[in-house]
Amino acid sequence: ICIGALALGPVNLKGRSFLTLKDFNSDEIKHLLWVAGDLKHRIKHEKQYLPLLQGKSIAMIFEKRSTRTRMSTETGFSLLGGHPCFLTSQDIHLGVNESSTDTARVLSGLSDIVLARVYSHTTLEELVKDASIPIINGLSDLYHPIQILADFLTLQEHYGSLSGLTVSWIGDGNNVLHSFMMTAAKLGVHLRVATPKGYDPDSSIIQEAQRLSKQHGTQFLLTSDPVEAARGSNVLVTDTWVSMGQEEEKKQRIKDFLGYQITMQTGSVAKPDWTFLHCLPRKQEEVDDQVFYSPRSLVFPEAENRKWTIMVN
C-alpha cells in the first residue's frame, strides 16, 4: 500500500514478508508508520472507503490465542475490502497432520497473504521458504514486530516526533523487547532495558542492537536495575512476565521479578512528560492501577493502533 508522497523517497515493500523489523531499514519503517497514520486519518476521521484489498484474502493461522491480533487483522483487512479467514489449531494442524511445506503451498494457492501467530519462529521461516505469497509474523517466541509498529505509531501521535525520545523497558527479555531492540535506533530512539538476571534478551539480538545504536548514534543501556533504566526516560514499557506456555514457571517468575512493577514511584525518576505502554493483557503485578489507568497511560490508543498498523503489513 502506498498513499501519497513521502519525503523519504521511494520505498518498495510490495511482496515482502514481515517476520522481523531487523529486515527493514529506517526509511522503510518510517514509511510503514506514515502510511498507517494516513490510513487512520482517511478512514477514521474523513470516513473514506478505501477498497485497496478488494478481492484479496488473508489466511490467519493462530497457534496462540489473541484478542488484539485477531480483531485488528480481521477489522483492518475488512476495512480495506479484503476477506480474513481465521484458522485455529483445531482448523489447521501446522506441522502435525500436514507439513509446513505443504501448508505453505496450499495457502499460497488459496489466499494472497498469511498472518501466522505461532510458538516457534522457525515455523515462520519454514512458511516463508515454501510460500509464494508474503508471510506476516503475528507473534513468535523471538519477535513481535506488528506490536512494535503500533507502539511507535502511538508515541509518534503523542509526542509529535520519535527522534530523540528515550524508551525504557522494565521486564522480561522477551519477543516484544527483541522487536524494540531491532527498531528503536533506526527511528532515532534511545533504549534503556532493565531485566532480572537470568531473563536477559537473546545475546545475538543484543549484539545487533548495539551495532544499530552505534550506527544511528543512539544510546542503548542494559541493566538489572529498574530505577536506572527509568531515569530520564520519556516512556516506560513493560509486558506480561508469564507468557503463554510459561504457566508452570509463574511462581518463580513473580518472585524473580520482585521490584519490577511500574508505579508512580518508578516514574518519579523519569522525565516530567513520561508516558506508559503495555501491549496487553496486563496483570497487576506488572503495573499498578494508578499508572495503568492514569492519563499517562497510552495502552488503549496503543491497542487501537494495532488495527491501523496491521493494514500496512
Features:
313 residues; alpha/beta; Rossmann fold; 2 domains; five-stranded parallel sheet; four-stranded parallel sheet; 12 helices; globular; disordered N terminus
Task: Please explain how this structure is put together.
This protein is an alpha/beta fold. It has 2 domains: 51-143, Rossmann fold (3-Layer(aba) Sandwich); 147-307, Aspartate/ornithine carbamoyltransferase (Rossmann fold), CATH 3.40.50. It is 39% helix and 14% strand. A 5-stranded parallel beta sheet has the order 7-6-5-8-9. α1 crosses α5, α3 (100-110) crosses α4 and α5 (145-159) crosses α12. The longest helix is centred in the first third of the chain and has 20 residues, at 26-45. The radius of gyration is 19 Å and the shape is globular. The N and C termini lie close together (9 Å). Mean pLDDT is 94; it is low at 1-7. It comes from Salmo trutta (Brown trout). One of its GO terms (cellular component) is mitochondrial matrix. Its main location: mitochondrion.
Secondary-structure blueprint of this entry?
Layout: H1 26-45, E1 57-62, H2 67-79, E2 83-88, H3 100-110, E3 113-117, H4 121-130, E4 135-139, H5 145-159, E5 166-170, H6 175-181, E6 190-194, H7 203-216, E7 220-223, H8 226-230, E8 235-238, H9 250-256, H10 264-267, E9 275-278, H11 289-292, H12 299-310
Parallel strand pairs: 1-2, 1-3, 3-4, 5-6, 5-8, 6-7, 8-9
Helix pairs in contact: 1-5, 2-12, 3-4, 5-12
GO cellular component, one term: mitochondrial matrix
Subcellular location: Mitochondrion matrix
EC number: 2.1.3.3
